[in-house]
Amino acid sequence: MEIDLSPQLAKKVYESNGGSYHAWSPSELPMLHEGNIGAAKLALQKNGFALPQYSDSSKVAYVLQGSGVAGIVLPESEEKVLAIKKGDALALPFGVITWWYNKEDTELVVLFLGDTSKAHKTGEFTDFYLTGSNGIFTGFSTEFVGRAWDLEEKDVKTLVGKQSGNGIVKLEGNINLPEPKEEHRKGMALNCEEAPLDVDIKNGGRVVVLNTKNLPLVGEVGLGADLVRLDGKAMCSPGFSCDSAFQVTYIVRGSGRAQVVGADGRRVLETTVKAGNLFIVPRFFVVSKIADSDGLEWFSIITTPNPVFTHLAGSIGTWKALSPTVLRAAFNVDAGLEQLFRSKRNADAIFFPPPN
């Protein structure tokens, strides 16, 4: 049975006056189930506070909009408090406890993409809250809570009874959360919009790749990632992941066209993509994108920490490596057409500017 690769928008799961949580469902995006991948977005309004929680999945978080504060506690470690802003990527391994806070007027939006191969539900994140109306304290009896934390019963009832929020709350009054420390960002976050470029093609596009060199924690997460910015009318050359990885793409900004070709030379997807869309390219399938006039920007995770891609066009393309006689035999064409084909796209590029 063929799997639908059509891009999808996230659906709202819950909301409060502090913000909302959105997720993609495997029932609507079957490739989530096929690839053991989860995807969700957190949106916090001013003074919105996402309560401390951990997940059954390792993730990469990417700040799509706004700025705020993130608290991160790695297993058996002290809390790290980071200032975060648009373009920041954070690797969140198993067992990490996080909280998120927005004190600015602009909405803070964070994208989460991760591996659900060990999750309770394939293709979905299950979050476990430490506090709140659905937090772990509400499940234990007052006796167990009292003995574990050496509290009297009246104090336990107050502690549990005051937790009326669910997932996201709006902080009121004079609560001052910890201030972020610059040194806590080291090794924990990388701003993809400010990092050195791995690819920079004039009028074409730019790429920043997250891997174990610039963000070591992705090794623990088991995922690589990249931020790709394509200029107006430019093209990303056809290519595929040659290490059996899935490519999960979220459209951050702009719009464009995408085509995916699979086995037997069949085009399995031809679609228009726009901001907010998520789509997944299966293993070894070839994908290419052309930006509309306003450009196209996307953030992707690849299900390996150090992804390897093969591009089929440009001077680094596979065609340049094959000998002329092999190409003539394979295409069943004469030497003239083979030479014309080989002579095109000599630039060392994976992004092609629009034709003159």
Automatic annotation (TrEMBL):
One of its GO terms (cellular component) is endoplasmic reticulum. Keywords: Disulfide bond, Endoplasmic reticulum, Seed storage protein, Storage protein, Vacuole. PANTHER family: OS01G0976200 PROTEIN, OS03G0336100 PROTEIN-RELATED. GO terms for molecular function: nutrient reservoir activity. It is found in: Endoplasmic reticulum; Protein storage vacuole. Residues 3-157, 195-339 form the Cupin type-1 domain. This is Cupin type-1 domain-containing protein. Its main location: endoplasmic reticulum. The keyword Cell division does not apply.
